[in-house]
Amino acid sequence: MSDQRGADGITRIVEVGAKPETDRVAVAEAFLVTTSEAVAELVAGTRKGSPLESAKLAGVIGVKRTPDLLPHCHPVRVTGADVAVEPDVATGRIRVEATVRAHDRTGVEMEALTAAAVAALSLYDTAKAFDRSAQVDGVRLLRKSGGKSGDYEATP
Which residue in 29, 32, 37, 81 has its CB near the most CB atoms, within 10 A? Predict the structure, then answer.
């Protein structure tokens, strides 16, 4: 077998079986950037229902499907996930914040990032009817705790 760096070019999932299980938490955010009018339409709801509630659901589904989407992610025993959607009509932005918790051998940063991004994409899917120039922006990890690498907090 090659060294742990994968110098052979073969894609693999890294072995984590010997790592201790610890409590893990990760929080990520993403933004839908559009017009005030588009945000107002999303807040008011459409004939499909509430885009804000649909985005929360999409984010939760994103948490559960992360290892299916990203080839190096381990399936993680998620113990909880929350997706918050905060519209700001005045600025034409909607902030998504995803928090994911697990007790496992590897972290949940990718699950939190996927949840935030998928929720923002769900909002975009509806916003495009009101603003074709809408965009998803600022997907980033805000903080994480647990595991060998310790805690992390993004700078404001």
Answer: 32
